[in-house]
Amino acid sequence: MRARRLESASTPACRNALRRAGTSRHTLDRRSFLDKSLRNILVVHASILGGIGTLLQPKYPEELHREIPKLDQYSFERLVQSSFEGVTFQEGYSASAMEEDAGIAPWQMAHATAERLRQENLIDVACNAYDWASNYQISYERAAQMQGDKFDCNDPARHACEKLSQPGIPMHFLSTWPTQPRDRLFHDWHQMAICKLDDRYFFVLDQAKDGVFWHGNLPEFVREHSAGQPVPMSIIPGVGIAKFVEPRYDVAPAKFLLQFAHMKSEEEMASLGIHPRIPLNVQLAGNMQ
Predict the structure, then answer these.
(1) Does 218 fall in a domain?
(2) Contact present, 235 and 241 (Cβ < 8 Å)
(3) Rg, Å, the chain Cα set
(4) Dist. CA 75–CA 69, nearest whole Å
(5) Which residue segment(s) compose the domain that 143 sits in?
(6) Does residue 174 share a domain with residue 82?
(7) Are residues 133 and 188 located together in one domain of the fold?
(8) Res 39: pLDDT
(9) Burial class of residue 35 in the structure, from the number of CB atoms within 10 Å of its CB (0-12 exposed, 13-18 middle, 19+ buried)
(10) Are residues 155 and 136 both part of a single domain?
(11) Each residue of 138-170: pLDDT tens digit?
């Protein structure tokens, strides 16, 4: 019986059948491999999207739709003073026309990056960048447990946003960098807390202690604010203005993602509807007429 099976398997008809079966099997193997690869890609993609969606969750979702409180200038100042010990106020006004900004200038920044890497150790640069990113916008609660540590400017900016957003004030981050592309790799960037009081009227809180009621637009403020500093500053394009949303997970990726997700233009910022005060010299001039 076995001899007959072997003999029948060697017939041309049988060999052709086996050849066709082999071809079909290889084809099925290739299709199975492609199907599995596609499924794996979809699973990884879904996992990434799911992870990003998790990191984008706010700690207090209801605050995204909270009604803006009705305040006048006096009430607003009292609120800020009760939130920050030793805070100071000053008025600021736009004085001159803006100069043209250099923009992002990626090629010039790339050259500056290469120049810095030639001057410094790559590992040191990477470690400093990692340390800065991992400690970006330390929460007020965590900062209270780190007495004596030196904080970056983005830390008090977050503390200011945390405190003033609790009563419903729509707080934003104002992120700035050196105007000239090369300076961005060799000088510090800066971040402040801001809220919009009215059209062309803003309250800017720097280091959670220096308050400025600014009459004008924000690029003008940044230029005036950086006067006397080592290098002139400007708002970072695109991400320079971002609504503060407290992250559900207090980790660096969540903070960066939420800042990107809530980018705003000056016009899109929610306003408190507090009209600018009339300067004293204008009031006196009006009374004399």
Answers:
(1) yes
(2) yes
(3) 30
(4) 11
(5) 61-288
(6) yes
(7) yes
(8) 56
(9) exposed
(10) yes
(11) 998 888 888 656 789 999 999 999 999 999 999
Q: How many domains does the chain have?
A: 2
Does residue 143 sit in the same domain as residue 13?
no
What is the phi/psi pair of residue 210, to 5°?
-105, 105
Check whether residue 33 and residue 86 sit in a common domain: no
Instruction: Please give, one letter per residue, the 3-state secondary structure of the chain.
Output: CHHHHHHHHCCHHHHHHHHHHHHHHHHHHHHHHHHHHHHHHHHHHHHHHHHHHHHCCECCHHHHHCCCCCCCHHHHHHHHHHHCCCCEEEEEECCCCCCCCCCCCHHHHHHHHHHHHHHCCHHHHHHHHHHHHHCCCCCHHHHCCCCCCCCCCHHHHHHHHHHHHCCCCCCEEEEEEECCHHHHHCCCCEEEEEEEEECCEEEEEECCCEEEEEECCHHHHHHHHCCCCCCCEEECCCCCEEECCCECCCCHHHHHHHHHHCECCCCCCCECCCCCCCCHHHHHHHHHC
Residue at 56 is within a domain:
no
Same domain, residue pair 46 and 78: no
In this structure, what token pair is assigned to residue 79? 């609120």
103 and 28 share one domain: no
The answer to whether the predicted template modeling score (pTM) of the entire model surpasses 0.90 is: no
- Residue 233 forms part of a structural domain: yes
* 89 and 184 fall within a common domain: yes
Is residue 67 within 8 Å of residue 270, measured between CB atoms? Answer: no
How far is it, in rounded angstroms, from Cα 268 to Cα 246? 19
Q: What is the pLDDT of residues 226-276, one digit of tens each?
A: 988 899 999 999 899 999 999 998 888 999 999 999 999 999 999 999 998
